[in-house]
Amino acid sequence: MRATIFNAPGNVTVEDRPEPHAGPGAIRLRIAxxxxxxxxxRVYRGEKHAAPGVIPGHELAGVVDEVGEGVEGIRExxxxxxxxxxxCNRCLYCLLGRRNRCEKRLTLxxxxxxxxxxxxxxxxxxxxxxxVFEVADDLPLDIAALTEPSACTLASLELCQVRAGTSxxxxxxxxxxxxxxxxxxxxxxxxxxxxxxxxxxxxxxxRWGADLVLDPNVxxxxxxxxxxxxxxxxxxxxxxxVGVAELVGPALDLARPQAVVNLFAGFPRxxxxxPFDPNLVHYSEVLLTGSQNAxxxxxxxxxxxxxxxxxxxxxxxxxxxxxxxxEAYTARLAMNGLKSxxxxxxxxxxx
Length: 351
Prior knowledge:
- This protein has helices at 38-45, 92-95, 124-127, 141-144, 147-159, 175-186, 199-207, 221-228, 248-253, 278-282, 296-306, 326-333; strands at 2-8, 11-16, 27-35, 59-67, 79-82, 85-86, 106-107, 119-122, 132-134, 168-171, 192-195, 212-214, 235-240, 255-263, 287-290, 316-320, 339-343.
- It has 351 residues and is α/β, with parallel strands linked by helices.
- The chain folds into two domains: 2-146 and 315-343, Alpha-Beta Complex (Quinone Oxidoreductase, Chain A, domain 1); 159-290, 3-Layer(aba) Sandwich (Rossmann fold), CATH 3.40.50.
- The strands form four sheets. Strands 3, 4, 5, 8, 9, 16 and 17 form a seven-stranded mixed sheet that branches.
- Helix 9 links the parallel strand 13 (235-240) and strand 14.
């Protein structure tokens, strides 16, 4: 089979690999589509670890074409997505149902082979814990491949207690910031304010329903957010979707007292210190937190939500084959478009 291989930072190739088969307790997927994550780009930059020689890709959808001995409830021909976390199922977090926080977790695409290949064997530890989810017939598989980043977004929104009428400020209108916009809107949040320096992305945010879009290089962002949130001194929830340390302080400035500020983006290890006034947290009782990945239940509910989320079909702007998949990395580094998706021959992602 043809597969994308991460060799080292800045070095991604396409190679032939032996076609894998499903052993006992496992299933094999014929991959339809897999999208590139911002974390994959961080691995490419050398800011995050992945095993040399691993097949990337944890945001994926495919069709089951082999079912291993002992697997129940999954059939050949089933259209599915997966939660890509291999958990120990014994630590405190696993026992609490939060396998995304497992103390010994491994993740497909980083520690174990992922979905940037014709086939993927989903290990028994994922199959047996109910982390394989059927995709409804009316949801195209290329959209279903966005379940993982969308579930991460839902986890972020729920951590920030976003519901109908919650005011939101989103710092950064890249793919994940825009997913916060459209999913927050689907949950009834508003007003939603987006802060983004790139004009093209500000235009997308306007078109996708932001109530206010601000250029941090020109606009009085703090004043505009306060004026747009009924004089409550800021937004109920602030999402930092860009891993830039210098943005944390300004993000805290956008939060009302007792708001939630979520550092959703990952930051480079050993990067710049994060400067902010701790009194903004102390005296205003602001909750400063972070979120990563999602629970299995959030994956399940996200699959339902995607079927009625406006503009979700516009999140993917760049499409590649497995042969051209290294170009997906260079496109993201160049800030070219939004989400990059690798599509595979033999499976129609629209069916």
